[in-house]
Design a protein that fits this description.
CATH superfamily: Alpha/Beta hydrolase fold, catalytic domain
CATH architecture: 3-Layer(aba) Sandwich
Largest sheet: 6 strands, parallel
Number of domains: 1
Number of helices: 8
Helix content: 25-40%
Number of strands: 8
Strand content: 15-25%
Order of helices and strands: EEHEHEHEHHHEEHEH
Structural class: alpha/beta
CATH topology: Rossmann fold
Low-confidence stretches: 1-12, 233-237
Mean pLDDT: 88
Distance between the termini: 31 Å
CATH class: Alpha Beta
Length: about 240
């Protein structure tokens, strides 16, 4: 049995396990940069989603990430965990349903998986603007058709599916201080646990309590006896 606590980047609590991080709506990989560095310090193999601004069609995003999951699973010899913030968590849920053979578990951070449109009116307006740009054929931008059309039919079915894969973990993190997403929309009944934190929506990517939840969840997904903690560089910051 490994030690109960990991401290310091010199050790490897992640034991080489893979983690894919997916940013939120209109955000890019850099928004999860600190979390990525933290996970690498704990020994995890991390992979960016390859997203500069998360505004593409949801099906297209899933098609982008599925080969990434396959490569990481081949590299590590194990299924991959996914951490998704906001819209990223919605994509994570769909991928877990579609490819449970590749996903060990997901952690969603402020993700309105129960209703994608239960967000602040300003954000809803931004979604409308992006949808309009998509209708004007701006590349790599979703359109209004993605909400009801055939392009995202399977994606929507994955979100609505209540038959959660038995051996895929699921932790949903939410905050009543979110300010962007209506917190009740984050309470997916399929999740193993709903964990409340005191954080703003965007702040979840850097909030210490969120990192504790993420660390414990990843350890659970990997059937580890250990619980990751802050690496030395983060503790000293």
């Amino acid at each position: 049995m490994r030690s109960a606590v990991w401290r310091g980047a010199g050790q490897a609590p992640g034991d080489g396990r893979g983690v894919v991080l997916i940013p939120g709506f209109m955000a890019g990989d850099s928004s999860l940069g600190i979390m990525t560095r933290w996970l690498r310090g704990l020994g995890y193999h991390t992979h960016k989603a390859g997203i500069r601004s998360h505004v593409d069609c949801s099906t297209a995003v899933c098609e982008l990430l599925e080969p990434c999951l396959e490569r990481m699973a081949d590299k590590t010899g194990e299924r991959v965990a996914i951490v998704g913030q906001s819209r990223g968590g919605i994509v994570a849920r769909a991928l877990a349903v579609q490819r449970p053979d590749l996903v060990s578990g997901i952690v969603t951070l402020g993700s309105p998986v129960c209703n994608m449109l239960r967000v602040h009116p300003v954000v809803l307006g931004s979604i409308g603007v992006v949808g309009a740009l998509g209708m004007l054929k701006v590349p790599h931008v979703f359109t209004y058709r993605c909400l009801v059309g055939d392009c995202c039919k399977d994606f929507r079915a994955s979100l609505e599916c209540q038959m959660w894969p038995e051996d895929v973990g699921y932790t949903a993190v939410y905050s009543k201080r979110d300010g962007i997403v209506q917190w009740k929309a984050c309470l997916d009944p399929c999740a193993d646990e709903h964990v409340e934190v005191s954080s703003s929506h965007c702040g979840m990517s850097v909030h210490p309590d969120v990192y504790t939840v993420v660390g414990r969840s990843l350890a659970t997904f990997g059937n580890a006896d250990d619980v990751p903690v802050w690496a030395d560089w983060a503790q000293a910051a």
